[in-house]
UniProtKB/TrEMBL annotation:
This is FAD-binding oxidoreductase. Residues 35-216 form the FAD-binding PCMH-type domain. It comes from Vogesella amnigena. Keywords: FAD, Flavoprotein. Belongs to the FAD-binding oxidoreductase/transferase type 4 family.
Amino acid sequence: MTDLVSRLAAIVGAANLLSAEHDVAPFVTDYRGRYHGRPLAVALPASTAEVAALVRLCAAENIAIVPQGGNTSTCGAATPDGSGRQLVIALRRLNRLRAVDVPGRAITVEAGMTLAAVQQAAADAGCLFPLSLASEGSCQIGGNLATNAGGLAVLRYGTMRELALGLEVVLPDGTVLDALSSLRKDTSGLDVKQLFIGAEGQLGLITAATLKLYPQPSARATAMLAVGSAEQAIATLTALQDAFGDRLTTFEMMSEACQRLLDKYQPGKVPFFSPWALLVELSDSGAPATLQAAFENWLAHAANLLDGVLAHSEAERTRLWQLREDMSETQKRDGASIKHDIGVPSSAIPAFLAECDAALQAAFPGVRIIAFGHAGDGNLHYNISYTRPGNAALFDDEDAVNAIVYEHVYRHRGTLAAEHGVGQLKGHWLARYKDPAALALMRSVKRAIDPQGIMNPGKWL
């Protein structure tokens, strides 16, 4: 094994192969602290050629590989096991901007660029890269692609699957797949890049991507609105879509429990308390005053609204957005919870919430449910705490809680992983609920591309 470590170091340089316990510590625990591993080493390659050489050596020696981006996974997807025989390949040094094509509205970046850096590179070119996440300062584009990230603007722009035009991928035998392209139309066979988006590093290691850019909006109109029920929230979504079409960029929901929790840690910043708060944003080209006036006119005649705050400046817009963006961290500050990153059709959100809330309350009287998220695309963060007095045994109840939640999710033809992936956390639940034919196809693809099974083993494939 010492000889193997030396050969790995020869590829990336001794300073970029970490093996001491204190050096590998940031790479071996997931974001939530639920999964811990012990790798053979952590390699920090600086080029696609170095990644390919690492993978070829690992394939020859039958050493498993764990690809890692910003290590912001919430389900252990980028955490090695405890065997000491898995190489973590972390891509933070593979972080160059390769090209910007403004007329073609495309940007080519390496996988280790943070999402914030890609957003800034697009902005520097007068364009918009629309993916936006709370972790955008630390998550990396490779990880965003590997989990098919969505975020706050899916309603208008789609997930990473829709935003990716081309990929460069190192396959499990070390072959480099060059599928980088800015083409919007290509009917020459299967779109192989799609195999790797959402695969969580189990089929290959993404090293670069060509991504869609959009014109920078010149106008935004933002409001936080109060409604009395989930049904009224979805009715408001429909009315906004009818009135504004794809200018509706964001439609977020936060329950009253969320609002109370925010007020607990940020007193005086929540503008009102209501059964549901909606964060709504429109974006468009043209004069800001025109969009603002159209939104104000719509608000003046809208049904179902109990209250509302309309941003009249960028500072006011930022304050409204901050409340939504602080939600996850605020809940973490308040204590542990059983988290769900579920999705149901937007039209099914009211029924799901009513039925699942009732089932959880019946099973765990007094349970606290924190529900918030991207209601425009049906993706809810549905988090549970206080299943027992004192919450001391919360995770003892995790399987029972999950069984109730996922039963109701799939009753409404939803998904247990709408944004954060599956990783180690949800693989057994995926096996229970995913269509067997779909699972069989995915496993066939895995066997065909990675017959040795060295790419990110121990995850859901």
